[in-house]
Structure formats: C-alpha cells, structure tokens
Amino acid sequence: MESSHGGPEARVAPPRSSEALPRKRRIAARRDFQATYGEGAKRHGRFVVAFARAGEEAEGRLGITVTRKVGDAVVRNLLKRRVREIYRRRPGDLRLDVVVNVKREGAVASFAELREDLLRVLSALEGRRASG
User: Fold this and answer.
1) Quick check: is 38 in a domain?
2) How far is 96 from 36, CA to CA, in rounded Å?
3) Looking at the chain, which terminus has fewer C-beta neighbours within 10 angstroms, N or C?
4) Does any domain span residue 17?
5) Given this model, what pLDDT does residue 130 score?
6) Is residue 126 exposed (0-12), middle (13-18) or buried (19+ Cβ within 10 Å)?
7) Is 57 within the bounds of a domain?
C-alpha cells in the first residue's frame, strides 16, 4: 500500500514500556543514603561495597555512588548504568534499601565481572537480612 507521498506506508512501532528502573525505586535523598550507611549491613566485594537496610517503602530501592577517583564523567555514568541494569535484572526482590559504592577497580571490570561481584554481594546482604 502506498501513502499519499508515493512511498511505502510508514510503519510505526507500537509504544514500548520502559525497562528503566523507576524513579520511585531509586534512593536520591542524602538523608536516605546516610541512614543506609549508618543503620545498614555492609558487604565488600572486589568491585563494590554495598550497604543495605530495611526500607520504608514496599519495594526495594537502589542508590549508587561512584566518586571522581574512579574516573571521568563518562566512566562514572557507564558504571552507574551497569549497576542499575544488574540490580534491575537480578532474580527476586530484595525489599531493602541498597546503596552500592563502586570501587576504583570497577572501572576496569567487564560487565560480567561486575555482575558476578554485585550479585554475590547482594545475595550476602539478603542472607544477612533473613538471618538477622
């Protein structure tokens, strides 16, 4: 079928739902970061340090910090996107407020290495919550 412009009819893709981590699932306020650091359990990994505490929301939330020591803005943003993606796609729901601090070593880690390390740390935090 042809359009009025003489070319094939334009096909419009149906709108797709976003797979992004919703804003309500992110920790943004400094007081929430501080509360998680102060009250939360802490686990070290090769590329990350993660803190977790029982959240006030029904769903778990994620906060990410990547300092300037790790790299320039491009590197820091890449690492934050990777951590969000790993957190979003992990199995289960932690129902915890989690803050992930990426270490300098994270800048040279592959996605697979970062994923393995972060999932191991999150699993350890979840196990601590179940036992304590």
Assistant:
1) yes
2) 10
3) N
4) no
5) 43
6) buried
7) yes
* Residues 6 or more apart whose Cβ sits within 8 Å of residue 13: none
Report the C-alpha gap between 84 and 87 in whole angstroms: 5
> Cα(123)–Cα(26) distance, rounded to whole angstroms?
19
pLDDT averaged per 10 residues, the chain (length 132) = 53 66 88 94 97 85 96 97 93 86 97 97 80 46
**Strand pairing report for 48-54 and 61-65:** unpaired
100 within a domain of the structure (yes/no): yes
Domain count, the chain: 1
DSSP string computed for 86-121: HHHHSSS---EEEEEEEPGGGGG--HHHHHHHHHHH
Q: What is the CATH number of the domain that holds 33?
A: 3.30.230.10
CA distance 29 to 130: 26
Q: What is the pLDDT of residue 8?
A: 55
Strand order in the sheet with 96-102: 41-44, 48-54, 96-102, 61-65
> pTM of the prediction?
0.81
**Residue 87 CB neighbour total at 10 angstroms:** 22
